[in-house]
Amino acid sequence: MSSHGVPMPMISHPAGPLTGRAEVPGDKSISHRSLIFGAMAVGETRITGLLEGEDVLDTAKAMRALGAEVVQHAPGEWSVHGVGVGGFAEPEDVIDCGNSGTGVRLIMGAVATHDFAVTFTGDASLRSRPMGRVSDPLALFGARAVGRAGGRLPMTLVGASEPVPVRYVTPVPSAQVKSAVLLAGLNAPGQTVVIEKEATRDHTERMLAGFGAEITVRETEEGREITLTGQPELKPQEIAVPRDPSSAAFPVCAALITPGSDVLVPGIGLNPTRAGLFTTLREMGADLSYENEREEGGEPVADLRAKFSPDMKGIEVPAERAASMIDEYPILSVVACFATGKTHCPGVKELRVKESDRIDAMAVGLRANGAVVDETEDSFTVHGMGPQGLPGGGEAQARLDHRIAMAFLIAGMGAKAPVRVDDAGPVATSFPIFEGLMGDLGAKLTRVNA
Ligand SMILES: O=C(O)C1=C[C@@H](OP(=O)(O)O)[C@@H](O)[C@H](O)C1
Ligand SMILES: C=C(OP(=O)(O)O)C(=O)O
């Protein structure tokens, strides 16, 4: 079920070879930021390759509600006429961010240093996720938040009328928390400093610098320290959004586990804060190569070529790598079923507060399809079954989580028997063309009645 629909069950049947070219959509993290930063610049930002998934479309609506002019000109081609830092207007209604943690947390940051109140909500998944991790640091700027028990949405944020700059050490490895503080800092006078002990994706730092903000990053004993000078005039940009490595993960992993496959996934951003899955797969012995390596918009980019890999081995995934592949653990746990030996993933407590509890969702769904998975509060282990792979034949619950739905649909392609997913609707939040794209490669996905 998407935030507005009925459940859409889907069955993924064991597939023949998957072959061809998989042009995945634009990066979700960069798409949200293009719209939000564009809305805070003075003048017109033009965007190509924007991800038109539900999460990003909800952010576009929110930017309109705050006073920016956001226009779609053609598929993927958008413009945002920004209102300048400090220029947002009080929205007339509640802001509904649907399924998107990134959307709600970044927008909460962006409005926290404006002198008005905004009420935020989302779908059942987003309403279950913790927002205190954002409202706590925003209180340091002078904002006040009232939400449901446990810091859940709906939540009303009363912005600071006289914001002060903040120094904040993030207590969890989260680019959303870091970004919320930096966005609030944009409209506070003086320098806002965020320190993160573990580096998380750095799109906010890179893009704000591109928009002309004064932002510096240095390594200190405490961690990675980011200093932003408040109240800049952000200059509008031309942004070409690179293709999303988190979406590329699905056709890549499908090829690795499906006999005879050879798939090319062109133009994928390999920013080191995002590319942990591909490093892990190569360590496991996957036949995954980077072709035509180049730079685009200051980011490393390559075409990924993935081939069926019957000789993968289970590995210990370093905990330090977790942030750089945090959204990819569901699909990694599927690939791990097809490797020989155990794959152990420590340091992944954050998976418990995503769109679903992803450790539990994967463990339960994989077990229902014949795998052995152990879990602790902050880790899990998949007992690989070697090239004979996953038996399949079971159902998995998507739990309003796009990555869980897609991971199990990919599992069915390499499994011995079909895998049924109770609801493929959430896939549209980040990868609206998934069904057609995988079908064109040779996957057999069928929609069934609820
Ligand atoms: O900043 C971002 O764009 C994101 C940060 C990550 O969340 P956390 O900040 O909660 O780790 C990630 O899981 C999410 O898909 C996108
Ligand atoms: C965690 C994710 O997204 P968000 O936090 O933006 O809902 C994701 O896309 O895997």
TrEMBL record:
Pfam (any one): EPSP_synthase
Active site: 327 (proton acceptor)
Entry keyword annotation includes Amino-acid biosynthesis: yes
InterPro entries assigned: Enolpyruvate_Tfrase_dom (IPR001986), Enolpyruvate_Tfrase_sf (IPR036968), EPSP_synthase (IPR006264), EPSP_synthase_CS (IPR023193), RNA3'P_cycl/enolpyr_Trfase_a/b (IPR013792)
Enzyme's top EC category: transferase
Keywords: Amino-acid biosynthesis, Aromatic amino acid biosynthesis, Cytoplasm, Transferase
SUPFAM superfamilies the UniProt entry points to: EPT/RTPC-like
Pathway: Metabolic intermediate biosynthesis; chorismate biosynthesis; chorismate from D-erythrose 4-phosphate and phosphoenolpyruvate: step 6/7
Stated name of the protein: 3-phosphoshikimate 1-carboxyvinyltransferase
Species in which this protein is naturally found: Harenicola maris
Biological classification of the source: Bacteria, Pseudomonadati, Pseudomonadota, Alphaproteobacteria, Rhodobacterales
Recorded name of the encoding gene: aroA
